[in-house]
Every structure is written in structure tokens, then in C-alpha cells.
Design brief:
By secondary structure, this protein is mainly α. The protein has helices spanning 3-14, 21-29, 38-45, 50-58, 69-85, 95-98, 104-124, 130-133, 135-153, 162-176, 180-213, and strands at residues 35-37, 101-103. The longest helix is centred in the C-terminal third of the chain and has 34 residues, at 180-213.
Amino acid sequence: MDADTDRGLRARLRRPLPERTSEVLREIAAGEGERVTFRDILTQLRHRAFGFTLLIFALPCCLPMPPGIPTVCGIAIVIIALNLIASRQRLWLPGAIAGKSVARADLKRMVERWGRYLERLERICKPRLPIVTEPVGKVLIGLVVFALGFLMILPIPFLGNMPPGFAAAVIAIGMTERDGLIVLIGIGVSIIAIAVASVATWAAILGIINFFTA
């Protein structure tokens, strides 16, 4: 790393981090370069809570994405869930995932699509029901998030990975804003998402069976 690059990195790390989740997402999307790695995103997040990192990997699954991205995001979410279940203080992601990149144009499109909804949600978020976001509650969150991440990895037909992605995003916002009520709402949405994914998968299985037995 040359001196100019090193100075630039230090300057970014010293720069005050925006207070709201939507602001951080817009700052990342407006950065330089055609592609951005998840490692770059995590570097800019710095001391942000696990919830924000979960949000970064959940949002791509809320929109139709190129093949492979939902799978990578699902695996990352499973790993985040395992970190939560193990009550780790620091988030760990393997280099194979952290080094994956997405087109900054796709990231910007995602932020433009969902940014206004995040802002509306942020207006009603506030620290409450701390027991939900404390260590014991995080283990329960980790179990739910694990199930959502596993669903994102699967090639689910019809609605695909979008319902689990949306549910994980709601939980992530609640964790980031330390709002236990939003987390509980996200868990409720997760139950619906799991049910929808199960019905879609079962319908696809029945369709395949009928096709070969007709």
C-alpha cells in the first residue's frame, strides 16, 4: 500500500460516521469505483452493530439480483446468525465472502429503491424493549436469522428469496436502532416469510412429481 492510499484510508476512518442507517448506505453507494467488495462495506461500517451488517446482506435479496448474489448473501447471513448464537463480541466473516463484490450501480439502485422506506422506518424507531436486543435476546434473533439465511441459499421458486430477505432486513433495522419492538415485528414477518417459502417449495415439488407421473 503506497503512502497516498494509506493517507486516504486513514482519512476515511477518521471521518465521522453518519448517524442513520440510510445515510451510511447512501454514502457507500456514492463511493468511487465500479464495484465494491463486502470487505470495503464492512470497513466503512466500523463499529456499527451486527444489525447493520445483517442489513447489508439482506437488502440485495429484497430485489431480483444476478444469480449467485442471493446465495452469497444467504451464506453470509447464516454466518452472522452463528456469530449471534455464539454471543461473539466481534463479527467474523470468511475471506471468501468478504472478498465478494457487487456492482456499485446495483448497490445504488438498491439504496434508491429501499432508501425512502428505511427513512420512514427510522422515524418510528427508538431504543426500547432492550431485553430483545441484549445477549439472551440475540441468541433467539440468531436462530431466526439462521433460518432466513438458509432459505436464501435455497433456489426457491416464484417469489424466490425476497420474503426472507425482507424479514431479515426488518430485524436488521431493529437491531441497528436498538428497537426491540421492530425486531419482534421482524420475527413475525419471518414466520410469514418461512411459511410462504415453504408453500412455494412444496408447490414446486408437487409440480415436478405431477410432471413425471402424468
